[in-house]
Fold this sequence. Notes:
By secondary structure, this protein is mainly alpha-helical. Helices cover about 55% and strands about 5% of the residues.
Amino acid sequence: MGTLDRDAAITAAMAGATANVDWLTSDRIEALTGGHGMLNLPVVAIADALAVEILRGTDVNVKFANAQRQPVDDLLEKAIGAARAAGADSANAALLSAVVLYLAGAQAQVGIPAGNRKLGATARMIAGVDRCGVAAIPTGKKNNKISGFPAVQAIYEAMRAGQLSPISGRNVPVGVGGGPIFGHSTLGEDVVFPAMAENGARIGTQAMLDALAGAGMPVAGLTAAMFGAAAILEIIHPDADVADRYGPYGKVTSAFVAGQSAARTAGLPEMLHVRLTGEEVPTARLIGDLGLILKDVGGPTVIGMMALDEVLQLFEEFARYTDPPLGHLCADAVVAFRSLIVPGADPRDVARRLADARLATSIDPDTTITAMNIVARKAMQVRRGPVSDALLAASTPLATAALYRRAALAHDRLAAGVPLAEVVEELDRSRLTTICARLSARQSTALRKSVTITVDRVAAGARRDSKMARRWLAFDPAIDVSITVEGVTTHLRGFVNDVVPAVVKGERSDVAWAVPLVAPAVGEILVAGNVITNVTVPAAMAAVLGIESVESAAESAVNAAFLSAGIPGAKARAESAATMARDIATAMAGGGR
């Protein structure tokens, strides 16, 4: 094989590292195409399927029509089919399709008994799944998970105690209950339905907040409010008109009242804001409508509800600025989808604004943009369309630039005689420095004080002696962190294994204030196997330059990657990338394979 110049060597290393998208991450993303573990790819597929139809002019409105079928049914059928093809089971496909279509502008409910249509119920019927009560629907997994049972139980206890309804059914005269005299007049619309909606949503939401806390989970207001609203809406007339004090006649229903009460109980803001478009959405309406969908849509699983949480990161108030494992990434797709269907939207402009917005908030921009690129490419393996195209357009230029910087640095260092292990460690040190610097700037802005966060130690085997725990960072992290606020430094040694448990148990009130400030950096570190270009690109370059064998290069790179090789999987991917890069270099030099 002839000798390659610098540019050719960089080209070979980059081409080898990116030849298979699976080689860019230690996450098991091929499993995602079968719906195993998470459902982000079905969400992208739903968004692509709906975007094609909506941009073609298909009406998203749910109409009170005297017809067996309407265009929204076709939209749901295509979305559910796309989700199934991408690995979702029917119940999860129904939930996610209904919610994404709702976020595109479809109504959650229209009409009165004959011809009444509910988006969740329609999705359930098209998917061919059974309804299940709110008590059996799980929350998403946030370490632990619960179901809607606490909300249902609390509401029924209040009901039996006479604390839910302002009247007793024992006092309703014969011939009044069960018909329009009650349901479509003062008694139902002005008295009973709104009171039960308010009381039930408050009681159910508070029960969920308490249950989440009791399960050792984050007390997520959004989750509690959705379940609180859903639990009362499966009891009361869920789409009744209500008294004028709640809003204009015909514009607000009992679902809105339930959503308003649930949102207030959960401490959610009154208005939410759609990312990129800036559109304002009343929280009460969103929560009420999601409650309607949830009670009707069937029996989603935990991963379906986790994907729902990701979908709702469409709103600024729920958005995450740290990078998760790749199976969680689908919010970008929903943001792109919502922006693409705005009349007159320019796909290139949407892609540019999406990239700018993600980079502005990220604490590890190269990881954020590369992760988006990986998910876009993987999504295209099962389906492609305007949304996956937008994700690819948003991420490819910057992800390529990030790869180039790594390949160029690796070439120059290796050509100068620097050992491969030192090159990889330098790249991971740079990744860590970026995380700390950007989080420090973010917290400084939030506190309006000078904040500097540093990670002083990153190692494995904090408390366990097993070979696996001592080998892989993410399984037993030993991390020391320091935070300096206005010149005063606080050291948090053993952050994960000592400090956090002590704070949660009330034993370290002296440092409790610091934990939420530094936790995002530690969380970013612990999922750093989501993007492993700091491992694969230098290994590929070492193989291209003939400095180490493929096997040796992969071994050296993984052993040196104290951050990026935090979970198993990087070595096999580095070997594959290095082998491909070596073969590309051989071909470029005129040596065939």
